[in-house]
Design goal:
- The chain has about 375 residues and is of the alpha+beta class.
- The chain has 3 domains: about 90 residues, Beta Barrel (conserved putative lor/sdh protein from methanococcus maripaludis s2 fold), CATH 2.40.420.20; about 140 residues, Elongation Factor Tu (Ef-tu), domain 3 (Beta Barrel); about 60 residues, Orthogonal Bundle (Helix Hairpins).
- The protein has 3 helices and 21 strands.
């Protein structure tokens, strides 16, 4: 029995020893394979960081307002007897647009005007009789009061009739007509929109930190998606004297010439206020910049010489400070020097210190030895 137990113990030790030895042999072979395996080079596309003269700009979003614009309304209620304009007409200041019924007022005006000469003669007669002592002062005062009251009644009737004739307050273009002949309109009802399109106003906001960079007369440019390839120029004409305490922004208004009538009120526009040119700024493509919770970074390709004299390319990750962005490029204030190669494609597979290989198109020429997605 003891002999059998000893044999089993020896067999167990041999079995476990062989398993453990095979495991150690396997680990050693894997380590040798990995040590002798060439380090893969990641394909990347690069671009040179260039030193350029850069003109910074304050950018904002604003909306366009008419230089003069109003909804044509009536201050009194009445029946529309005549419409003197059509939708889209160009009208001049003082031009008659709409006539409301005023037959009663015109009849009263004619009656009062007919009475005026007689009342005036009576007043003049009493004045001469007063000088001779034939009438009392009271009689003359009554005749004078009647004359002045009638003159004022005539003026009031003329003003009432004028209120029933709606005229253009300024020259401009009429909008779509909102009334019809014979319609009864209430005071304040909209009849049409009138706007002067010769000049337009642009209202936009800027942060309070940029107030010192904007003054009256500062030139601006604006672009609307209605004309994506065209920039319109104008000048700052008004700066709001107060800063919004909740948002910390200032409203600014600019005047834009609009001789061709392309800009319309209500349009949204991108605004750009140019600043003095800054020389020797480092510019890189925006696609080279990576974003994370820890800040912004990019990869720079650097050449290193090995002991055997061969050169290799490695990607070094650098934390950068990005300045202004515009279009497809951005200004780098810190972290990159001029003429350094920055990675613009292939950053996803990179890590700091990884070997890289520069290709023209890292997608089409992807290394076939790399695992496929």
């Amino acid at each position: 029995m003891k002999k059998w137990m000893a044999i089993m113990l020896v067999l167990t030790v041999i079995l476990f020893g062989s398993v453990f030895g095979f495991y150690l042999f396997k680990q050693k072979m894997i380590a040798q394979f990995m040590a002798n395996r060439p380090v893969p080079e990641m394909p990347v596309e690069v671009a040179l960081a260039s030193s350029q003269d850069w003109q910074p700009a304050i950018e904002s979003i604003g909306f366009i307002e008419p230089y003069q614009g109003v909804n044509i309304t009536s201050s009194v209620a009445g029946l529309v007897t005549k419409i003197h304009f059509s939708s889209g007409d160009t009208v001049r200041v003082g031009e008659l647009l709409v006539s409301l019924e005023a037959d009663v007022e015109k009849a009263n005006l004619a009656s009062a005007t007919a009475k005026l000469p007689a009342v005036k003669r009576q007043m003049e007669r009493n004045k001469s009789l007063l000088e001779r002592g034939s009438v009392s002062q009271t009689q003359f005062d009554d005749s004078e009061a009647n004359y002045l009251a009638l003159v004022n009644d005539i003026a009031a009737l003329k003003a009432t009739i004028e209120r029933r004739e709606i005229r253009a307050p300024f020259s401009g273009v009429m909008g779509i007509r909102q009334i019809n002949l014979g319609q009864y309109v209430q005071a304040g009802d909209d009849m049409a929109r009138l706007e002067n399109l010769d000049h337009m106003l642009l209202r936009f906001i800027v942060p309070q930190k940029d107030i010192s960079l904007i003054t009256l007369g500062t030139e601006i440019e604006l672009n609307s998606d209605a004309y994506p390839d065209q920039w319109f120029k104008g000048q700052v004409t008004t700066i709001e004297p107060t800063v919004d305490p909740q948002s910390g922004v200032v409203q600014v208004q600019a005047t834009i010439p609009n001789t061709e009538g392309q800009l319309r009120s209500g349009m949204y526009a991108s605004v750009r206020i140019w600043q003095p040119v800054q020389a020797n700024q480092i510019v890189v493509p925006q696609q080279a910049i990576s974003f994370s919770l820890y800040g912004e970074s990019l990869y720079v390709v650097e050449s290193q010489t090995a002991e055997d004299g061969s050169e290799t390319l490695t990607a070094t990750q650098r934390t950068i400070q990005v300045g202004e962005r515009r279009g497809d490029v951005a200004i780098i204030n810190k972290g990159v020097a001029a003429d350094e190669q920055v990675v613009v494609s292939g950053q996803v597979r990179l890590r700091n210190g990884a070997l890289v290989r520069i290709v023209e198109d890292s997608f089409l020429n992807r290394d076939q030895n790399l695992p496929k997605d």
